Structures are given as structure tokens and as C-alpha cells.
Amino acid sequence: MSEIRTVHAREILDSRGNPTIEVDVWLDSGAFGRGMVPSGASTGKREAVELRDEDAARYGGKGVRQAVHNVLETIAPEIEGLEATEQSAVDQALLELDGTPNKSGLGANALLGISLAVARAAADECGLPLYQYLGGPGARILPVPLMNVLNGGAHADNGLDVQEFMIVPAGAEAMGGRMDEVMQTACAVEMIHTYSLIHDDLPAMDNDDFRRGVPTNHKVFGEAIAILAGDALLTLAFRLLADNFAAGSDAHALRNVLIEIGDAAGSAGMVGGQVADIESEG
User: Fold this and answer.
1) Is a pLDDT exceeding 60 seen at residue 175?
2) What pLDDT is stored for residue 140 in this prediction?
3) Are residues 125 and 153 in the same domain?
4) Whose CA, among 8, 32, 155, 210, lies 20 to 30 Å from 148?
């Protein structure tokens, strides 16, 4: 039998050391599933509501005891006995129990924890890995990953309004394909970013001796080495793009990448911005 027999929940700590919810589900057959709910550093105002305790005395108000309570006292009695392999029916029951458009009634973290645990328990019941249970026996394709190369918004203190600058392998249909090209581009952008930080800190520029509490390159290695290191990174970035772009790749695409990055790093972009800063300081 694949009916849900027991549901349990607890508060755990995620990779950032913040509380989150973990849910265990057992089926009548003995099959088992566990769902641990991820949490981001930022939440949009229209996103589903992640229920936190708001008790400043515990984890700065980020505790999830109320979400755990909702699972144990409100949700579990209503879903125990449901068929675990009917995922859509279980999820619909969770939505109806919550009764709000943004899942603020019981907490999106409580609902998601149960949904994940039920799916994993059903997969265990069927003797299948989760991806195959959800995607079918022919599931073989993973989504195309996006490369996050620069952060702003809630993820950084640099004043950028855009939270994530990402490279999208638009020509790829699935995991694999042109991943090698994307990786080289992402690494090149990060090299240029590092070059810009080294040069920004120089005495002739912003003259910063520390970055996030750590001595900057010109303080550790000397100004001359810092200049040479930055220049080497900038040059290496373009060499990396040219040398490691996959064999047989579209030469026009490589040309466009080089032009875009060159413009952004040169007088029309980063260097020009530094000149404007110097002129504004008189």
C-alpha cells in the first residue's frame, strides 16, 4: 500500500546556518521520503510566503517552529491516509488547507516540505530515483544550467539594482552541449571582474587598503605587482576565450563574445567609468 501513514517535521539548519524545515513521510508499505526546504537570501514581494517565527530571541527571528507546528498539528492529520503516488491530489489538498493565494496561511515552507517528502516516499515505493519517478522511465535530460557571474541587489553591497548577471547558453537544448563554451566565458568574466577590483583599489584610483576587511593586493604584494597581476588577468581572459572556445564552434558567436566583453571592459565601459570617477573628483 502507498497510503501516507505518518508525517513528522523538525527544525534544522541550512548551509547558511539559518533554520529551515525538514519533513519525513512514511507510507503503509514502509517506504520513506524526506524533504528539506531550501531558502534564498532574497524573496520577492509576490513570492510564496516563507513562514518564520519572528522571535528575535531565536535565530534573529528566522526560526520555523510555527511551520513545524503547522505540519504536525494541522496538515498531517488531513493528509495521512492519502495515496502518495497521486502527487497532484496531495498538492491540491495542501493548497486547500492553506487557503491563501500566497501560501501565507500555513507557510510555503511547510507545504513544500511535505510535497517533497511525499514525492520521495512515492519514488521509494516504486523503487525509482526521484527524477525518473517524476519524469517517467525515459527521463534522461537535465535542464540547461545558467552561469551566475556577478551579483548585486540583496546578494552584495555594491549598490547594483540587478541582483544576478547570468550567462545563458541559449544555443543548448539540455545539459551538456555547449557547456564548455559557457564555462570559459564565465571564467573570463570573473577574471576581468577581479582585474577591475585590483585596479580600483590602487593608490592612483580609489586607494583602498582593505576590501571586506582583508588587505588589498597592492598592500600585500606591492603596487607594481598588483598592476601587473591585474593586467595579466585581463589578457588571460581574452586568451582563455580564444584558446578554449570549443572546436567547431560558431566563429561569429566567438567574435560577438569578444566584442561585447572588450567593450564592457574598455574605454566604453569599465575603464571609461574609472576615468569619469577620476574627473569627477577634480
Assistant:
1) no
2) 77
3) no
4) 210
Poorest-confidence range of 14-18, 187-191, 251-255?
251-255
Task: Give the DSSP per-residue string, the chain.
Answer: --BEEEEEEEEEE-TTS-EEEEEEEEETTS-EEEEE----S---TTSPP------TTTGGGT--HHHHHIIIIIIHHHHTTSBTT-HHHHHHHHHHHH-STTSTTT-HHHHHHHHHHHHHHHHHHHT--HHHHHH-TT---PPPP-EEEEE-GGG-SS--S-SEEEE--TT-SSSSTTHHHHHHHHHHHHHHHHHHHHHHTSTTTT--SEETTEE-HHHHH-HHHHHHHHHHHHHHHHHHHHHHSPTT--HHHHHHHHHHHHHHHSTTTHHHHHHHHHHHT-
Same domain, 80 and 202: no
Read off the pTM.
Answer: 0.63
Residues 230 and 197 reside in one and the same domain: yes
CATH of residue 226 = 1.10.600.10
Whether 8 and 130 share a structural domain: yes
Is there a single domain that holds both residue 59 and residue 169?
Answer: no
Which residues sit opposite 167 in a β-bridge? Answer: 147
Average pLDDT, the chain: 84
Domain assignment present for 30: yes
> pLDDT by residue (tens digit) across 9-41?
999 999 888 999 999 999 999 999 999 998 876
114 located within any domain: yes
Residue with cell 585581463: 234
| Domain end marker among 77, 110, 135 | 135
Q: Which domain holds residue 154?
A: 147-280
State the Cα–Cα distance between residues 264 and 242, nearest whole angstrom: 17
